[in-house]
Design brief:
The chain has 282 residues and is α/β, with parallel strands linked by helices. The chain is 47% helix and 9% strand.
Amino acid sequence: MITPIMLRSFGRSGSTLLMQVLGTSSNVIFDREYPFEKRHLTYLHRVAKVASAEAENGDDWNPDTLFDRNLKRVGPIPYVDTSIVDRSKLRTDYLLRLWNGFSSQVISKAAGSVDPSRPLYYAEKVVHDICEDVNQTLEAKNIFLLRDPRDEFLSIKSFNHKRGFKGFGWQENDSDESYALRLCDMRKTFMRHVSNLKSDHRKIFIKYESFMRDPFRFTDEIGDWLDLSLNYGEVLQARDTVSQHITSEANSIRWKSELSPRLKKIFSDNIGEELNSLGYEV
């Protein structure tokens, strides 16, 4: 069975770069199409979660709809009073078996292109809420990646402007201040979690800024952690293929010069303690 690598990060925090780094080994499998966001593991978790939920039958899903041979969407087991299975255990049981089947397919397709003497992985920019179930069920590897939310904010704003539409939860009626407040709220729990994280064989924490100061060393460290050979030089050679993703120099710290005093205060008032605990200047 393939070991999942869950890249746990946020948009404009370096996740695309880390996927490129992981992709320099053929033993890390994922769809190598920019921006590397085909989420097979998340999909399988959603299937397992829906199938094992309590029955909520309606006009479009009930026991009778099972007779529809052209059915394209399904819901939970439609029998409210079934007693032959334990619904509380089905989600992780389904996930394990779905992952086994997925792994078999991936291994078969990858035969001849991977090194059978090294570990084999599947990497994904995961949706955060699936991580607890996946870790409980599949012995996954977890890469926690954080970028200073002030620079993340500026990168989101630049990228939204570059693409011509708002993304990353930036709503039409948001001002810079309202979005900054919401971003602080969204990042606080994650920052508190990683500030106490101890790296081990299943978890590693990387600050984007630290990685960019010495990318070759950190690439080697990630490779050692995975027992694989990774090559940051290949990432540099492919830089032009993801040029549309870049909004600033990779090692730049923008917030000091580009954030207004009002925005700096919003970040310091709301996540100053978390920034300080992680070694960021406040």
